[in-house]
Amino acid sequence: MTTGYQLKSLLTAEGEASLYFEAKDFSDLASDQVLIQVEAAPINPSDLALLTAPMDLESLTSSGSGYETKISAKAKPGAVQFFAARLGMALTTGNEGAGTVIAAGDSEAAQALLGKKVGAFGGGMYAQYRVANVMECLPLPEGASAEQGASSFVNPMTALGMIETMKMEGHSAIIHTAAASNLGQMLNRLCLADGIPLICVVRSETQKTLLESQGAQCVLNSQDPNFFADLTDACDRYHATLAFDATGGGTLGSTLLNGMEAAAARHLTEYNRYGSDRFKQLYIYGGLDVSPTTLHRGFGFAWSINGWLLPQFLGRAGIEVMMRMRARVAAELTTSFASHYAHRVSLPEALSLDLVREYASQATGVKTLIQPTHEG
Ligand SMILES: NC(=O)c1ccc[n+]([C@@H]2O[C@H](COP(=O)([O-])OP(=O)(O)OC[C@H]3O[C@@H](n4cnc5c(N)ncnc54)[C@H](OP(=O)(O)O)[C@@H]3O)[C@@H](O)[C@H]2O)c1
C-alpha cells in the first residue's frame, strides 16, 4: 500500500477558505495508469485560482506543523457567490509537475514508463504521489531533472498553442501582454527562433529591460505616455491582427484592439464611419486583473473577443498537432521552455504565511516550486 499526503483546498458556504493536507491511498492502478512519486510542481497563476483566489489575505492564519499545517482565511467579499460551484468540496491542487514513475498498470504503455522521469498535468500534483493516465505523462529527455520537467505542460504548450492559433487563423504576428511572465519569456524565445514578429507589452521598465536582454525586438511599456502611438506603429510595421491578453480586466485588451485598428486605418483610402474591414482578434487567456473588462469601441466592427484555454485549444487542434507540440517541448525542455523559480519548498513549507502572500502577488520572478520529496 502506498499512502501519501495531498494538498487540499476547501471553501465553505459559511465563508471560510482553507488549505490543508489529507492522507490518501494511491495503491490502485488501472491497466493504463502509472504511479508517480512527485518531485517538483510549480505554483502557476492558474493554481492560485484554487489556492488563494477566494481568500482575504489580510485575515490569513495558520495552525499545526508539518502535514498537520492548516491555513485559513475569511472569504473575500463576493467570493462565496463567485465560487458557488465549489462550495464544500475539498479540491486537489497543482495543475502540473514532474517525478519518477514508481509503479505501473499492466498495459505495455504503462510498463514502458516504469522507472522513468515524467512530466504530468491534469491536477493533483501538490502531493507526494499522483496516479496518472499514460496520456497525461510526458517522458523527460535522458538526464533531465524533475525540476526541469516540472513546468513542461501548462506554459510551454500554451506558448506553442498561441503560435499554432496564429497560423491556423491566418495571422502573421502576435501581441502579448504580461509579456515578462515565464510564459512570455518562452513565447519570446519561440518567436525569435521561428521568425515570428512578437509585440511584447509589459507594465514596467524593469520588465522591458529583462525582455530586451533576452533579444526581444519590440517591447512596449503600457505605462509609457507614448504607449498607444508606439503600439499603433508596431501593429502597422508587423501587420498585427492578433492579441493574447493575460490581464483580462481593465482596458488593456480594448487598447490593443484600438491599436490594431489605428494601424489598419492608416491604409484606408477614404473615411469609413464603420472603421476598417481588417479583422482583429483578441483572446483573453488569463485573469491577472480581476476588475471588469472595459471596451472603448473605437475599433470598428471587424473584430472578435474570445476566451482561450489550453485544453479547449488542444481539443480543437487535434491529436496530431498536440503530439507535434509535445515533441518540441521534450526536445527543447531546457532551452526554449526553461522556467525560473525564486523558491524551492517542501509541501508543508508551501503553506508558510509569508510565502503564500508572496506567490499570491503573481509578480515577475517570484515563482515557487514545490518539492514534495524534500522534508524541509
Ligand atoms: N489560458 C490558458 O490556457 C493559460 C495557460 C497557461 C498560462 N496562462 C496564463 O498566463 C499568464 C502567465 O503565467 P505565468 O505562469 O507565466 O506567470 P508568472 O511567471 O507567474 O508571471 C506573472 C506575470 O504577470 C504580471 N502581472 C501580474 N498581475 C498583473 C496585472 N494586473 N497586470 C499586468 N501584469 C500583471 C507580473 O508582472 P508584475 O511583476 O508587474 O506584477 C508577471 O510578469 C497567467 O495569467 C496565466 O493564468 C493561461
From TrEMBL:
CDD domains named among the record's database cross-references: ETR_like_1
UniProt keyword list: NADP, Oxidoreductase
Keyword NADP recorded: yes
Keyword Oxidoreductase in record: yes
Listed Pfam families: ADH_N (PF08240)
GO terms, molecular function: NADPH binding; oxidoreductase activity, acting on NAD(P)H
InterPro entries cross-referenced by the UniProt entry: ADH-like_N, ER, GroES-like_sf, NAD(P)-bd_dom_sf
Domain of life: Bacteria
Record-linked Gene3D superfamilies: Medium-chain alcohol dehydrogenases, catalytic domain, NAD(P)-binding Rossmann-like Domain
Protein name (Swiss-Prot/TrEMBL): Putative NADH oxidoreductase
The species this protein was found in: Aequoribacter fuscus
Lineage per the UniProt record: Bacteria, Pseudomonadati, Pseudomonadota, Gammaproteobacteria, Cellvibrionales
